[in-house]
Amino acid sequence: MKFTGNQRKLYLLALALLVVAIALACTWTIWQRPSDETTTPAITPTPEATAMPVEPTLQPSASPEASASPEATSVTETAGTMDTIVYYQDNYGYLVPVMCKVPAEEGIAKATLSLMVQSAQNDMQAARLGLRTVLPENVSIDLDITGGLARIDLGKEVLSLADAAAESNMVTAVVQTLTEFPTVEKVEFLIDGQKRETLTHGTSVSGQFSRIDINPELAESTISLSDAEPVTLYFPGDSGSVLVPVTRMVYSEPDIHTAVLELAKGPNAASPLEDVLPAGCGLIGVTVEDGVAKLNFTKEFIQLAQNSDGGRLALKALVMTCTQFDGIEKVEIYVDGEAYDPGENTLSVPTYANVADEIVSQSIQTQSELIFNFE
Question: In the chain, where are the structural domains located?
Answer without folding.
Answer: 50-58+69-210, 216-372
